[in-house]
Amino acid sequence: MNRLIWHLLFFSLMAVQSTFADVRMPNVFGSHMVLQRRKPVPVWGWADAGEKVTVTLNKQIKTVKAGKDGKWRITLDAMEAGGPYQMLVQGKKNTLTFDDVLAGEVWICSGQSNMEWPLSAAANAKTEIPTANFPNIRQLLVKKDLSLTPKDNIDGSWSVCTPETAPQFTAVGYFFAKQLQKELNVPIGLINTSWGGTHSETWTSREAMNQNDELKLVAAKLPATDEEVLKSGAARTQALMKEQQGGLPTAAEEQAWGGANLDDTNWKSMNMPGDWEWSGLPTLDGVVWFRQEIMIPEGSNLQKMTLNIESIADSDSTFINGQMVGSIKGGRPRAYAVPDGLLKPGRNVIAIRVADNGGSGGIMGRPEQFKLAGDGLSIPLAGKWKYRVASVFESSYKPGPNTYATQLFNAMLNPLIPYAIEGAIWYQGESNAGRAYQYRKTFPLMIQDWRQHWGYDFPFLFVQLASFNASNGDSRHGSGWAELREAQTMTLQLPNTGMAVTSDIGERTDIHPKNKLDVGNRLAAEAMRVAYHQPGEEGSDVSRGPMLDKMTVEGNKAVLTFRNGGSGLLVKDKYGYLKGFEIAGADKKFYYAKAAIQGNSIVVQADSVTIPVAVRYGWADDNGDVNLYNKENFPAVPFRTDTWKGITEAAKFEEH
């Protein structure tokens, strides 16, 4: 063989060798991870086609060859809790090493903002975090991502619970894990894949949606690729701008929008406070001006007035009668002092320039906190505001998590499958409350979808919506939140499910109640019952509150009996009064009722109802006055005995 041929052969072999790919694995695997005990443990990744891959862990050595597509998968034998171990994954060219690996219990933590809510923002964060040294509690925080097609990897890494890392843990998951570890004395791994403000459909696969007569119509309209999404986003935003009279302004034109005498008759209107993405500006990131005229009565004391805005997403410049009174970046409260003499009796104009860089945009907060206030004078500002878009940021063309269904399933759940887990805890529903009747089908569909993809009916535990005054809903006006809670209760018909009731620990004016300790502990109690079939810490097998069994009528009284009564019914009131009960006759008019515990039953009556037909308990958006428990201290499940038409029956899911 001459030298030229030899050199050509040598360099060809070197080129071939250099094309060998490293053995790779998805980021659900990493140092400090927790692997599920007592179940076979799938381990998978990528390599060259036909490449031999060897996995070593805790005296197990298993080998497999990658397929033609470069994918490989090994299933390790079930292990008891233990560790720390080292996992080695060896290919032809490289070896992956994962240190400090434990075997224990692994739980998915998912849903929207109340699951995403970090420990740093929980009620008892200041006392909890400094002592959060729990080396056997770990979290994999899945970073936010979107996709219209299933992905095979996530961005995220495992961390050990310490005072330095605990603030980033999901608060509900942290307290859940802490209680479980106390009960089981094994390592606990949390996979935190959650995103605030999301509906259940974005956590559901395209295949599952095609199994539902209503959702399959939505699935049929989904773009095929993420590239199509960007194109449609640009087209949608451009179409939105065409609807705006005059299009986008020049810089000089925009400067006049804060003035008192601007002609804004062609501007559109939307209610504020609120998220503009749900009020006519879907997916818009950019600058929007809001204007409102207010009339101030003659003789009003206009000295030392303050303009109060609870929050802005994300920054503002605020004008009164053409003069800027304040500008703040970030969501913190505004209390802008109004210079004396700027306001006057009669017509006044407030103009607010809002810039939003991503996610929700607009004037936020509680309606009652949005006002002009001074000594003896308070002018509410919540209501219709005129608006016009001043500029559109490029990020507007990208979808939000609710723009299309299936996106979070594809990007933040599918890459985790088939990582061995014990179960899932879920806190979501607020974003589906407007379609509560549909949730009766879409929520169980999502649960079954996840189980089908994992290949087994793992325990699925969820949190029922807490009390919150979303829109003053009650039995007289209808309540979407009550109907959503009912849909959640109906989902308990699925096997291996459990629910934590939280009506008693919500906050009337905050959709994010800070008490995550009781939420986590109640989920842990349900986990002990559903997943581990063990009695609770007190030796009782009761892990849930009283649930209505049946109603009978005796004269002018309704008699209610309950399941899950434990060792007896209990009212939490120093005077012994049961609250939250209402009763109605055939006219469907509900009246506040007197209710009393009699043995294992509750007797309900009202002077205005002579022949009871229906009883409701905790049937309102804000149902925080409920106070029926069992003696094991678990709150009763809100309910109604009637099936009268609700306010969300006709509401259906549509693409954002």
UniProtKB/TrEMBL annotation:
GO molecular function, one term: sialate O-acetylesterase activity
UniProt GO BP: carbohydrate metabolic process
Pfam families xrefs: SASA (PF03629)
Residues spanning the membrane: none
Annotated keywords: Hydrolase, Signal
Signal sequence segment: 1-21
Location of the Sialate O-acetylesterase domain: 105-207, 417-527
Domain of life per record: Bacteria
Cross-referenced InterPro entries: Galactose-bd-like_sf, Ig-like_fold, SASA, SGNH_hydro_sf, SIAE
PANTHER family in the record: SIALATE O-ACETYLESTERASE
Protein's recorded name: Sialate O-acetylesterase
Organism: Spirosoma pollinicola
